[in-house]
Structures are given as C-alpha cells and as structure tokens.
Design a protein that fits this description.
The chain is built from 18 helices and 18 strands. It is an alpha/beta fold. Among the domains are: 197 residues, UDP-N-acetylmuramoyl-L-alanine:D-glutamate ligase, CATH 3.40.1190; 107 residues, Adenosine kinase, small domain (2-Layer Sandwich), CATH 3.30.1110.20. Strands 7-6-5-1-12-13-14-15-16-18-17 form an 11-stranded mixed sheet, sandwiched between helices. Strands 3-11-8-2-4 form a 5-stranded mixed sheet. A hairpin with a 5-residue loop joins strand 6 and strand 7. The structure holds alpha-D-glucopyranose (GLC). The site of alpha-D-glucopyranose has 15 residues, from strand 2, helix 7 and strand 11. Alpha-D-glucopyranose binds next to strand 2, helix 7 and strand 11.
C-alpha cells in the first residue's frame, strides 16, 4: 500500500473514535494523584535566550556537552533550557532553593498560568470528556489553584474538612500556590554564541520546578480516606518524579507503598496506572521501579523516560543507541525488555508520531479495544496541541478527520519490518512472544500551540477510552 492508501485505511479505523468518546461518559469514577500544581507558561525565543546567556556570563564551554540534570543557581536554569532547546527534548529539573525560584519570578516572567501536574491536567481532561466523577488529589488548594480547574460539576477535590467539593470552589486558605516554570521553544528557532549556532530541531519544553509540597510528596488526608472508603474504577498515579534522594525522596516513595496497598486491599478491582514522568534523581527512579511499579497494573512513559529507565536497569548500550537514533524498532526493544523485566500487565510508550502498548493477553481491556483507546487519545491530544487548550467539549475533537501523518506511518512501517510482521502496518496489532502489541500512527499538528501535558493526556485517555 502507498501512503495514501494507508492513510485511508487508518482513517477508517479512526472512525471508531466518536463511539469510544461516548463510552468515557459511562465510566463511574476516576481518581488522579498525587501532583497538582500551577504552570507558568513562557514561550522563549532564541534571541531572548542568547541575552540571558550573555547577562549571566555563561560561556560557550558551559553550553557544550551539558551533563547537568538539576539546578541550584540561576545560570543552571538557562543551561537546562539550552540543553532541551538544542536537542529538541523535554526534561524537568527540580530545586529546593527558593532563591532560584525568586530569580525566575523576577527575571523570566511568564505569558500565562494554567493547570499543571499530571493529576491536575488529567483530572481536567477526563472531567471534560464526561467521566461521571473525577476526584483530584491536591496537596495545596488555594484560590489560584482552584482557578486552574475547569468549572465542571463532575470535577472534585477535597476541602479543608476532608470532604468532596467541586474543585473550582475549594479555597484552602492557608495553602501556598505551587508554581512551575514551563519554558517552551519552537522548532527552527536559533541563536549564536561565539560563532556557534544553536538551533532547535523540534518544538518542546523545559520545566524548572521549585515546589516544597510536591517535592515532599505531601498527601492529603481527606483524599487518602476517600479512597479507603469509596470504590473507584481507575487511579491515575504520578508525582514521584520531583523527589530528590537528598530530600528523603527514597523513603517518601517507600511511604507511599502502604497507602497504595490499603487502597488496593479495599478495592481489589481498582486499576492503577502509573505515569513515569521525567525523574532526574537516579535513586528515586530506582525506588519507583522497585516499590511502586509492582503495585500498578499499567505504566506509561515517553521516549526520554524510557532511556532514563534503561540507564538505571543495566541497559546503557541500548539507552545510548536510542539516544542516537530515537526510532520505533529500538524503542520497541526497550519496551519488551521493560515488560519482561518489570512484569507489569500493560506498558504504553508514546513517542513522536507513534503510540505502542504491550499487554498481557488477559488484560482487562483487549488489545483491539486498546487500539481504539489510543486512537481516541491521539485525537484528544492533537486537538489540545492544535487548539492550545481543552476548555469546552468541542475542543476535544478539533482534529477528528485529519489524516495520520506520513512520518507516523514511516515509524509504524519500520516497526512492522523489524518485527517481520507486515500486518502490523495495516492492523496495528500483533503477537510478540506471549504478549500482544498494539500500535497506532498518530495525527501530528504542524505548529502546536502547546505541548505540556500531552503525555499525561495520551496515557490516561488511551487507557480509559480503551474500555
Ligand atoms: C510535571 C511538571 C508539571 C507539568 C507536568 C506536565 O508534573 O511538574 O509542572 O504540568 O509535568 O506533564
């Protein structure tokens, strides 16, 4: 089949999306935890970045071969932006130094505020999609945080009395707002330092986080109590990634274990999905793999997070190969390794243009359903990129009917050839060892208005719309 025929074949498959969207409205209840915050969005241009580099006396040498992965002073923030800008990658770095936060507030500024954190972003998306009841964990819920929630009757948080209340109406007076800087840059932008050109190969973002509560994994008692006494259908979990070993992060991960175990004991049919997220601290990353992954049914991650996991699991060679050539066959190799080693029932990787899921054949949602869930996620997340926000129901289907991209089909084609399974390119499903692989080409938006939170939307909608 040529591109056009393949695009038509996939357009036919994508016709399943509207009815999957309807199914979401029948899901009874979902909780999202733990990290909710406020994102300060700043689009940075190459010339502004250059000015910051010069003003902060950063040398060309500091900008070449950057090995830093956290920040403790203002110049580190700029180095982090340059690292992501010049490689077109997404990373999040954290600091526990309020002075750097104050420096960002004064010197970087922002364009606007919006909902941040996996738990908050997913809660808004799922409530808008019509899940009957969405309960979000917030460890801080002042007015400014409440304002980032959509004004929806099915979207709840926990108030000061530990009771469910419409999230947008809650004001926990003494809480402090938790603001993260999301610094976005555009493909093709460039700047020059001492004769060297830095150009951006792919639109992406760098996140600089100072967040005393999420960095301590502070848990809301009302939320914990709610899940101990109410049976919900799905728990979408994240928020371990801002922890630092130096801040007691490994113990904080361990402390979450009995909390999760109790929820599962009370509600044995609860399906838990963990979003890995950009976890820079290696000891914390190891702790997540050791203590949290065994408790969850499903795991979601992107290509960077896959490399990160390989690096702490004795797979440096494969990690380096993917770093040099981020392509579907190598990422599939990684996915298979993770599935076999960590033994979760389902694992989903989303990369630029392609989503793939490896699951046990008896997973609660069949691979055929999962395929439909992923296509629904592709429509919802590309609509978000296209529209900039998901604020009204009509926003979620803005890209419905657009063709899957040629680049996506190339990735799927490479994967199907590597697996010697030509059917994968047309059907999106095949057996690998004892597992079932489902993979889809996605809709790519040319000039995305936003990228932050894409992965969270993809993972959560894929799982739930695969019901
Ligand atoms: C991380 C960041 C948060 C951002 C989110 C998007 O959780 O800390 O600021 O909104 O990722 O995925």
């Amino acid at each position: 089949m040529n591109y056009q025929e393949l695009q038509q074949a996939w357009a036919k498959k994508y016709e399943a999306v509207p009815s999957q969207l309807e199914k979401l409205k029948h899901i009874r209840s979902v909780a999202t935890a733990f990290n909710t915050n406020i994102d300060a969005i700043l689009k940075i241009k190459g010339n502004v970045l250059k000015r910051l580099i010069v003003e902060n006396n950063i040398s060309l040498n500091d900008l070449e071969n950057i090995s830093l992965s956290g920040f403790s002073k203002p110049s580190d923030v700029i180095i982090g932006i340059v690292k992501c800008f010049s490689r077109g990658i997404a990373e999040e770095w954290v600091t526990d130094d309020i002075d750097v936060y104050n420096w960002m507030d004064t010197n970087l500024g922002y364009d606007h505020l919006q909902m941040g954190g996996q738990a908050g972003i997913i809660a808004n998306a799922l409530a808008l999609l019509g899940v009957k009841k969405v309960i979000t964990h917030t460890n801080s819920h002042p007015k400014l945080q409440a304002q980032q929630f959509l004004n929806l009757e099915n979207l709840f948080g926990l108030n000061d009395e530990g009771k469910l209340e419409k999230a947008v109406n809650i004001t926990r007076e003494t809480d402090i707002p938790l603001i993260h800087w999301i610094i976005e840059f555009d493909k093709g932008d460039r700047f020059e330092i001492d004769g060297k050109i830095f150009s951006c190969p792919k639109s992406n973002r760098f996140i600089a986080t100072y967040d005393p509560l999420n960095m301590k994994l502070v848990m809301n008692k009302g939320f914990i109590g709610y899940l101990n006494t109410h049976k919900i259908n799905y728990l979408l979990l994240s928020g371990f990634h801002p922890l630092l070993e130096s801040n007691g992060g490994v113990d904080l991960v361990k402390n979450a274990v009995p909390v999760l175990q109790k929820w599962k004991k009370y509600n044995s049919s609860l399906i838990i999905h963990l979003e890995i997220a950009s976890t820079q601290d290696k000891a914390v990353r190891k702790a997540i793999v050791k203590y949290i992954v065994p408790l969850v049914d499903s795991v979601g991650l992107n290509e960077r997070e896959t490399i990160d996991l390989l690096n702490i699991m004795g797979q440096k060679t494969l990690a380096n190969r993917i770093e040099k050539n981020t392509c579907s066959p190598l990422l599939f190799e990684a996915l298979l390794f993770l599935k076999k080693t960590l033994k979760m029932k389902r694992i989903q990787l989303h990369m630029f243009g392609l989503y793939m899921t490896l699951q046990d054949s008896d997973f609660v949602h069949s691979a055929e359903q999962n395929l439909k869930g992923m296509m629904t996620a592709a429509v919802v997340s590309s609509s978000k990129a296209y529209n900039g926000v998901l604020a009204q129901y009509g926003d979620v289907v803005k890209t419905l009917g657009m063709s899957v991209s040629a680049q996506s089909l190339d990735e799927l084609n490479n994967l199907s050839q590597a697996l010697h399974n030509p059917e994968l390119l047309n059907n999106g499903i095949c057996k690998v060892d004892n597992f079932i692989l489902s993979a889809i080409p996605t809709i790519l938006v040319d000039k995305p208005k936003t990228l932050v939170g894409m992965g969270d939307t993809i993972s959560s909608v894929s799982l739930l719309a695969g019901c």
